[in-house]
Every structure is written in structure tokens, then in C-alpha cells.
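Session log. Operator J.P. requested a structure for one protein chain; no other inputs attached. Running the standard single-chain path with C-alpha cell output.
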Amino acid sequence: MDGVLVGHATLIRGDRVRTGVTAVLPHGGNLFRDKAPGAVFVFNGFGKLAGSTQVEELGEIETPILLTSTLNVPRVADAVLDFMLDLPGNENVRSLNPLVAETNDGWLNDIRGRHVGREEVFAAIRGARGGKVEEGAVGAGTGTVAFGWKGGIGTSSRKAGEWVVGVLVQTNYGGDLHILGVPVGRALRSGGSRSKDGSVIVVIATDAPVDARNLKRLAARSALGLGRTGAAGSNGSGDYAIAFSTARQPGRLLANEAMSPLFEAVIEATEEAVYNSLFCARTMEGNGRKVDALPVERVLEILRSRKAIP
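Structure written below.
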């Protein structure tokens, strides 16, 4: 989406380190001085979403959004503070609200080592670019697992009339994998996926002039997209959606009755972003374990046999 920047820092070291960080910037300027309308929706709160309460209270996002590994949240938040305090114009700032989300990559990664720090956070933010986003086992998706297969970062977007809705996901959750309504997980495993637990972060951007209240409604609809993929929403799954608008001078906000096309767009884009995270990932070994990539050709055969694709 125009104006939105995404960057990754990927850490693959030795036999045990498989982790990283992903930065999403609503715009390329000083976010503290030019805040983005934002909202957070909690589908299941088994997670560590630093900074969420201020976004809930004020309806604004004032730093880049960072995605990482569970135990790295405090280190990443501290690095975001360093980055923001160093920006020209922020010399007298005494309060900042880093927004940092996570999923647990401890199956493939030495999570207790907390390997993501200032260097990686700065690299992800400074390397953030517009246009096509690298997907799969990169950044915050380096060590994640989804439906028993290698998960990662996925993106997608949809038009909603004159507006665009874009979605980025960090997939690390479980359930009964469905693609285009077909129970692909059962067909591949003859009994379903390995685990129902895990987490997923959904980041939603739109250029529609939407306030924080309707951004939260938009974020909530992403759960319907996750449901289409077979998400279990289990007790141990931390499922969050963060939504923001890039409309810098919104003028007249969209009315409630104008939101339905955006709702439909975010459901479809979330579903497809999950598929892309799986289709773009590669087999990964780490921490003494191996997680296979989704066998794409076999999946396509199943989808064709069920008439889901030509």
C-alpha cells in the first residue's frame, strides 16, 4: 500500500538461532509528531502486546509497529525507544509508546537467548521499504510454525471501492488447515495438524479515512479470515490484530454504513496472507528440530481434485 513501509531483520546463526524482527511503518516520517489513527483487537489475549493499552485509550500509533519473538519484546521495545528518541524533533520527548507484538518461535529457535536487539531493530526500521514485501521464513517469521508446517510472514491486499486494505500476518498458530474451504491439513496428514496451540499477529493498513473506533471494527473482522484458514483459537493461542489508517488528513470520516466493503476486504486479505505465509516459507531446521515447508504441489493437486481451483 502506498506510504506503508515494511522491513525485516532475519537472524540465522549456527544450529539454534532462528528468529528475527519485522517493522511496519504507517509512514516514513516522524510517527511521534505525525501519529497514525490506530486500534488493537484482541481475539485471544494469551500474548505480550506491549503498548496496546495506550492505543486502546487514545486511538493513535506513535512508533513503528514491531513484530518479534516472545521473550524479545522488552529488548525490541527498548530499541524502538532509542530509535524514536534519536529522531530530529524528538529531543524533548519524555514519553513514548512502543507497539511491539510477538509469537513464540521457541520450537525452532533458542528463544531463551533473546537474540534480537538494537542492531536488528534499527536494521528492520531503517531498511523498511514500500512495494512488494518479502514473505515466508523472514524477519519475525523466521522461526514460526503454522498448522504443523513452516509458517512465517505473509501479505495480501484488496480493493474496497476507492479504498485499499492491506494485511501482513506473522503466522505461528494451529488448527485444522483449510485452503479455499478444502480441509487440506486432513488430506496431507490423514488426521489433521500436529498442534492447535500457537499465536498469530495481523497488521492491517487502509488508506480509507477511518477513525480508531471503526479501525477496531475492521481489525475484529480479521478473525473471520483466520477462521476460514481453520484457526483453532485455542487457550494457548495469542491472537491480535493491529489496524491503522494512512489517511493523513482524513477530512470527513467514513460513515458506519460505508464500512462493509472494508470488512469484506480485510477478511479476504487476511485469509490469503495466511496462505502466502505458508506457500512462501521453506523447510527450516533449528534448535535440534525440523519443520517442513507446506508441500505446495501436493496442496495444488488436492485443491484441483476438489474443484477449488482450475
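Operator note: The first helix runs from residue 52 to 58.
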